[in-house]
Amino acid sequence: MAGRKVLIIYAHQEPKSLNGSLKNVAVEELGKQGCSVTVSDLYAMQFEPRATRNDIVGCLHNSEEFNYGVEAREAYKRGDLSDDLIEEQKKVQEADLLIFQFPLYWFSMPAIMKGWMDRVLVEGFAHKFPDCYSSGLLKNKLALFSFTTGGSKEMYTKGGISGDIRYILWPMQHGIMHYCGVKVLAPHICFAPEYVSEENRKEMLLVWAQRLKTLWKEEPINCSPEWYFK
Amino acid sequence: MAGRKVLIIYAHQEPKSLNGSLKNVAVEELGKQGCSVTVSDLYAMQFEPRATRNDIVGCLHNSEEFNYGVEAREAYKRGDLSDDLIEEQKKVQEADLLIFQFPLYWFSMPAIMKGWMDRVLVEGFAHKFPDCYSSGLLKNKLALFSFTTGGSKEMYTKGGISGDIRYILWPMQHGIMHYCGVKVLAPHICFAPEYVSEENRKEMLLVWAQRLKTLWKEEPINCSPEWYFK
Ligand SMILES: Cc1cc2nc3c(=O)[nH]c(=O)nc-3n(C[C@H](O)[C@H](O)[C@H](O)COP(=O)(O)OP(=O)(O)OC[C@H]3O[C@@H](n4cnc5c(N)ncnc54)[C@H](O)[C@@H]3O)c2cc1C
Ligand SMILES: Cc1cc2nc3c(=O)[nH]c(=O)nc-3n(C[C@H](O)[C@H](O)[C@H](O)COP(=O)(O)OP(=O)(O)OC[C@H]3O[C@@H](n4cnc5c(N)ncnc54)[C@H](O)[C@@H]3O)c2cc1C
Ligand SMILES: [Zn+2]
Ligand SMILES: [Zn+2]
């Protein structure tokens, strides 16, 4: 929708990959709608995934014993987080919608994207107990997990060898986004792009573009255990 | 048990943390039993979590389009993975038991440990479709996830706000370890150590030491959907 701001957090090493193409489709389609789109291209940025003392500028709150969560929270209050984190937080703050675009790595996101979650969603910025879940600090924002797999759709069913794909979404959608108050749109999944025809892949990109056209009319999922495990 | 080899993959920034103490208890207790114990102290090693072209020494299999999974598999065959990966794979190969010791970050492991999974468990080394799950290449090994939380035990129950703690274990235990053929021992969880008394924490360390004394007699869990979602 014209005027809406979208942040795409994108984790693929190769621009020519299907993930790269899916990201491009989103940039193009949302751009056409008049949205302003920002991309955090994590590998290109060489984004740091490790949560360390380097994230805190200047002195520590407790230099006797390093507690990452406490130090990040205190540094956020003081405006003393490292520049890369301040930058990402600004992008998140401005965004109406976060799209996470990645290949599934070990039933989850690649480590570089997990590091984005670990480091950017600092206490005080994204949540502040008991301001979590429905009162998380990023409420009024939307998130959408868009990913590709190696496994087939059949493998990721309730009776399949890898279980329902929704089981995998629980930590990411509920544990991270919902915890921060973000409402979650239905995930977008391209199964096994490496093992289908060129034609099928083109179709996958079309389906994504198609969905994006009416994305702003979608209702968030009901992000509770029933959605995942019913 | 005397003679058994244990690899502890440990992810905490602070040696004085409860995770640090839990790791030390395991080193000590297993050492007393005559096990040989190796620790991969990921932050101290500044372990690289990002899956990139740097993991492949020399020329690429396909330099037109970088596919990490394919390149890592081919490099493994040729003996051309980067030294840090070869080193970790040697430790895994020799181990009878892998213990993962970490604080829960966003319903999962910290990014630095996720990177260990992404980069070390290469196709051809840890799995090779259809050699996965019960015929994964690391069969005859055991794994144990030992972690601490911020949330309380009550939050992590079926009716609790964060859902059953077992939901979180599905990607890690089933999606990673079981996929590679590794049998999984019951997880070891210390809930909310920051919010209990010093005395309670000492008790937590004792309980862990106690469990380790009879660990080799334990049966693996039945790592199927029933265990997680029943
Ligand atoms: C460490 C690791 C862990 C993994 N764990 C899991 C797991 O737990 N579960 C699981 O299911 N899978 C897993 N996988 C597999 C992984 O999810 C897939 O390899 C990945 O999702 C494929 O997406 P891609 O973008 O990399 O594909 P690509 O290989 O880039 O895409 C496939 C093809 O699409 C082509 N393409 C790109 N753009 C277009 C276009 N515009 N039109 C037509 N074709 C195009 C590309 O040229 C390519 O040939 C894992 C892989 C790794 C490396
Ligand atoms: C990015 C991020 C994401 C997070 N996500 C989640 C989440 O999704 N879910 C969740 O539940 N939690 C989450 N947390 C909280 C996190 O899991 C806890 O902070 C962590 O598990 C606590 O473990 P620790 O070892 O760091 O504790 P510490 O703070 O090191 O331990 C508590 C106390 O134990 C003391 N201690 C150490 N050794 C001993 C000893 N031998 N005897 C007695 N006392 C000792 C220490 O001195 C310290 O005071 C998150 C935290 C961060 C930073
Ligand atoms: Zn939810
Ligand atoms: Zn399993």
UniProtKB/TrEMBL annotation, chains A, B:
Residues 5-211 form the Flavodoxin-like fold domain. It comes from the Eukaryota. One of its GO terms (cellular component) is cytosol. Its EC number is 1.10.5.1. One of its GO terms (molecular function) is NAD(P)H dehydrogenase (quinone) activity. It is an enzyme of class 1 (oxidoreductase). InterPro entries: Flavodoxin_fold, Flavoprotein-like_sf, NAD(P)H_dehydrogenase_qn. Pfam families: Flavodoxin_2 (PF02525). Keywords: Cytoplasm, FAD, Flavoprotein, Metal-binding, Oxidoreductase, Phosphoprotein, Zinc. It is found in: Cytoplasm. The keyword Flavoprotein applies. It catalyses: 1-(beta-D-ribofuranosyl)-1,4-dihydronicotinamide + a quinone + H(+) = beta-nicotinamide D-riboside + a quinol. Its cofactor is Zn(2+); FAD. Belongs to the NAD(P)H dehydrogenase (quinone) family. PANTHER family: NAD P H OXIDOREDUCTASE-RELATED, RIBOSYLDIHYDRONICOTINAMIDE DEHYDROGENASE [QUINONE]. Homodimer. The enzyme apparently serves as a quinone reductase in connection with conjugation reactions of hydroquinones involved in detoxification pathways as well as in biosynthetic processes such as the vitamin K-dependent gamma-carboxylation of glutamate residues in prothrombin synthesis. This is Ribosyldihydronicotinamide dehydrogenase [quinone]. The lineage of its organism: Eukaryota, Metazoa, Chordata, Craniata, Vertebrata.
